Amino acid sequence: MEINRPRDLAGVFDALDSSPDSLLLAGGTDAMVLVNAGVLRPEHVISLRRVSELKRWSDGFIGSCVTYARLEHSDIAALAELSRTVGSPQIRAAGTLGGNLGTASPAGDALPFLAAVDASVELASRAGSRMMAWDDFLTGPKRNALESGEVILGAHLPADMPSRTAFAKIGVRQAMVISIASVCVTRSEAGAVTVAMGAVGPTVLRARRAEEMISAERAPTEAALDEFQRLVSEEAQPITDHRSTEEYRKMAVGVLARRALGRCMG
Measured in whole angstroms, how far is the alpha carbon of residue 102 from the centre of its chain? Predict the structure, then answer.
């Protein structure tokens, strides 16, 4: 295995020119599991963790190599909450937002947040950069729109970020857990609600019908919240696998969304 450790984007593009099939490695918290299991055997690896351009973090931009340990301190409630649920302190010190985007797993903890706030993903290549909406970039289970020669630069958040956000997930234990179901809920001052669901579909999903219904309720009653929960569950598209059943995931994601909405309204 040949490993290249560039310190800037120009070095990344040079390495990609030499070995276009290289594995782009950020924290390695997903990829190294596959390497250790013998499932993944890359001949060329480009480590991104020293690339300064990918570590930038401002109010409206999160670089792809910003770690969850840094994001734990975000002023955005949901972003801080989801970051604290990622693995152990050691995993959070290595794992990155870009890793979630690159892996494109439906269970990626950062992806419901990006979907709920309608973030855009910026991709860079030697030819320049391009922006993609989150739902254009995430094309399916563990699939994305990254092309040969490109690297994920980071995610752009909208200028009109919702004032209240909340993240919740459920798994087989309380710590270091892969999601069985997760949600990110946002609510603006005007009452507009968004709901993004993770681990309950082929990729991250937005519960559009539930959003429309509850956004029309300025002061939701218990009956309205019941309907909101039902619609979220109905819009989920989970499967049964070794972690959970389809039925449980549908039920759980509705409960999680209702609780997260409650925190946004509190």
Answer: 10
Domains of the chain by start residue, with CATH: 164-265 (3.30.390.50)
Q: What is the pTM of this model?
A: 0.94
pLDDT tens track for 96-135: 999 999 999 999 999 999 999 999 999 999 999 999 999 9
Q: Are 98 and 54 in contact (CB under 8 A)?
A: yes
CA 45, CA 25: separation in Å to the nearest integer? 7
What CA–CA distance (Å, rounded) separates 206 from 215?
A: 14
Contact 118, 160 (CB under 8 A): no
**CA 249 to CA 245: how far, in whole Å?**
6
List alpha helices for 19-65, DSSP H: 31-36
Residue with tokens 């049964």: 240
Determine how many CB atoms are found less than 10 A away from the CB of residue 229.
Answer: 21
Residues 64, 206, 194, CA angle at the centre, nearest 5°? 90
* 193 close to 262: Cβ distance less than 8 angstroms: no
54/191 Cα distance (integer angstroms): 35
96 within 8 A of 88, measured Cβ to Cβ: no
Backbone angles phi, psi at 111, to 5 degrees: -70, -40
Rounded-to-integer distance, Cα 87 and Cα 67, Å: 12
Rounded Cα–Cα distance for residues 5 and 25 (Å): 10
